[in-house]
Write a structure and sequence with these properties.
- This protein is of the alpha+beta class and 568 residues long.
- The protein folds into seven domains: 25 residues, no CATH class; 84 residues, OB fold (Dihydrolipoamide Acetyltransferase, E2P); 68 residues, OB fold (Dihydrolipoamide Acetyltransferase, E2P) (Beta Barrel), CATH 2.40.50.140; 74 residues, OB fold (Dihydrolipoamide Acetyltransferase, E2P) (Beta Barrel); 84 residues, Nucleic acid-binding proteins (OB fold (Dihydrolipoamide Acetyltransferase, E2P), Beta Barrel), CATH 2.40.50; 85 residues, Beta Barrel (OB fold (Dihydrolipoamide Acetyltransferase, E2P)); 87 residues, Nucleic acid-binding proteins (OB fold (Dihydrolipoamide Acetyltransferase, E2P), Beta Barrel).
- It is 21% helix and 37% strand.
- A five-stranded mixed barrel has the order 1-2-3-5-4. The chain has a five-stranded antiparallel β-sheet with strand order 8-7-6-9-10.
- The longest helix has 19 residues.
- The radius of gyration is 56 Å and the shape is elongated.
- The N terminus is likely disordered.
Length: 568
């Protein structure tokens, strides 16, 4: 040793210093990444020379699944991580895997510090998001950071290289959080700034339909959204934007209003074409017929489309000459093409009003040429209501049979009405035709003779009839003359003398005679009197036995007459 030192002119102290420096230099490389050369591959390890006093050994599992499937060969230069110098067996412990991860961490840290994008591959779905491989380092992609828009299925993103922005790094815990949405936000912001600098009110731009609501459609213009209100989609009235627009379609729009401060865009689609209403008077004339297509029906009438540019409407009362026509949906069907007559051009409502019934002759103008009051017709019940039934008379003319005209017996009317149903065949008699009010009154009970009229024909005025007292009130007596035929005796007609006009002297079910003194055709009311019988008897007695001028009292004369009659 001393000879060597003498030949090199190095002292013992200097030699010890060199040894110490060499050891310190090697020690300083521990836990660092160095360049090494593969010098041998054995069954379970790869031997690497890193320029130290001893070679390092790396498990072959870090290079592949088996010795026949390695991604390294003898003589290759590779980067390795010095895990430990001079282990238990005096060997240097190396790791290629840690070198890869350490290099990756360093690169990722640089990207994080400089806010640059990194490339990674989503490997699988985990709770709350996805796992991403960043060059050997596993990162977490939260579900909220996958995309600015909600993605229904993230399977399409698996195993595909994607760009990410690192949001958070913690090397100590081995935690990295990345975002794909942040990149999209940056790109959208750049697109928005570029878009805003190139547009103004009146600009025409293409966009994609992003969302459809009841009040309009949102259009993605690339970095910024704009709204097309439902009234700015079409010159025609539409029920819902989805009637003419489809989600995801590309459309051209015109910028109607641009508020730079809040970056709000109001868009229009119909403004890209001329307003068809400006030509309405050239294309349409009142009282002329046109072809239209039924767009919708409602309680108010029928909405029409004409020439695919104009809105038309038929009010319910213009659909049929019927006084109460059925629901419009019973007359016309959606998408049905029809011929109609134009009756009004309404500039304020931008609507054309039509009539369907005016294409036919008004049946009310010929009704009196076909029928007259008193005619009996066979017909069909078309509707039943609480107050009667409607029957078909002629074409689109219906007539009504009021419930009170179903039977002469008022008590039977409700029962008869309940028994009738739509479609029943019935015979009716025409009672009245009012063309001004477009109304025909009909009767069923009039097909038979009125029982009261028949009774009066057999018992004319001044006839004396017998009846049973049915009811008593303060004003008089109700008398049942025959079945369903009644008369009434007012209190003043109970007796000639006022003192004898007492109601309490009569009883229910008592049989009495009375005289028919009048009949009310309209009310079908028979007025009776007991007093008139007395007066009539008095006149007969006076004419037979003398007058009151003879000096005898009327009571005496009547008494004598009665006695004489008894003796006979």
């Amino acid at each position: 040793m001393s000879k060597v030192l003498e030949n090199n002119n190095i002292s013992n102290n200097e030699y010890e210093d060199l040894i110490a420096k060499s050891l310190n230099s090697e020690k300083s490389k521990e836990k660092c990444i160095v360049e090494g050369k593969v010098i041998a591959i054995e069954n379970d390890v790869v031997i690497v020379d890193i320029g130290l006093k001893s070679e390092g050994r790396i498990p072959i599992s870090e290079f592949g699944r088996s010795s026949q499937n390695l991604d390294v060969q003898i003589g290759d230069s590779i980067k390795v991580f010095i895990d430990k110098l001079d282990g238990l067996n005096g060997e240097t412990k190396l790791s290629r895997e840690k070198a890869v991860k350490q290099a990756a961490w360093n690169k990722l840290q640089d990207s994080f510090d400089n806010k640059t994008f990194v490339t990674g591959i989503p490997t699988n779905k985990v709770k709350g998001g996805m796992s991403v491989d960043l060059e050997g380092v596993t990162a977490f992609l939260p579900g909220s950071q996958i995309d600015p828009r909600q993605i229904a299925d993230t399977k399409d993103l698996l195993n595909k290289p994607l760009d990410f922005l690192i949001l958070k790094m913690d090397k100590y815990r081995g935690n990295i959080v990345v975002s794909r949405k942040a990149i999209s936000d940056i790109e959208l912001k750049e697109q928005r700034q570029k878009l805003l600098s190139n547009i103004s009110e009146g600009s025409i731009i293409e966009g994609k339909i992003k969302n459809i609501t009841d009040y309009g459609a949102f259009i993605d213009l690339g970095g910024i959204d704009g709204l097309v209100h439902v009234t700015d989609i079409s010159w025609r009235k539409i029920n819902h934007p989805s009637d003419v627009l489809n989600l995801g379609d590309k459309v051209k729009v015109k910028i109607l209003k641009f508020d730079q401060e809040i970056t709000r865009l109001s868009l229009g689609i119909k403004q890209l074409t001329d307003d068809p209403w400006e030509k309405v008077n050239e294309l349409f004339k009142v009282d002329e017929n046109y072809e239209g297509e039924v767009f919708a029906t409602s309680d108010l009438g029928v909405s029409l489309s004409l020439k695919n540019e104009y809105d038309g409407f038929i009010q319910t009362n213009e659909l049929s000459w019927l006084k109460k026509p059925p629901h419009p949906s019973k007359i016309l069907q959606t998408n049905e093409k029809i011929t109609i007559k134009l009756v009004e051009i309404n500039d304020e409502k931008r609507k054309l009003y039509f009539s369907l019934k005016q294409l036919k002759e008004n049946p009310w103008e010929k009704i009196k040429d076909t029928f007259k009051v008193g005619d009996v017709i066979e017909t069909t019940i078309v509707n039943k209501v609480d107050f009667g039934v409607f029957v078909k008379v002629l074409d689109e003319i219906d007539g009504m049979v009021h419930i009170s005209d179903l039977s002469w017996d008022e008590l039977e009317c409700s029962t008869l009405l309940n028994n009738y149903k739509k479609g029943d065949k019935v015979s009716v008699k025409i009672l009245d035709i009012d063309t001004d009010k477009e109304r025909i009154s009909l009767g069923i009970k009039h097909l038979v003779l009125d029982p009261i009229q028949e009774f009066i024909s057999k018992n004319p005025i001044k006839s004396i009839v017998s009846g049973k007292i049915k009811s008593i009130d303060e004003k008089g007596l109700s008398i049942e003359l025959e079945k369903n035929i009644s008369g009434y005796i007012k209190k003043t007609n109970l007796a000639k003398e006022r003192l004898e006009q007492k109601i309490d002297r009569f009883a229910i079910n008592e049989m009495i005679d009375s005289m028919i003194i009048s009949y009310d055709d309209k009310l079908r009311k028979i007025n009776l009197s007991i007093k008139e019988i007395e007066i009539d008897e008095e006149k007969k007695v006076l004419s037979k036995y003398g007058s009151s001028d003879s000096g005898a009292s009327l009571g005496d004369i009547l008494g004598d007459a009665l006695n004489k009659k008894k003796s006979e």
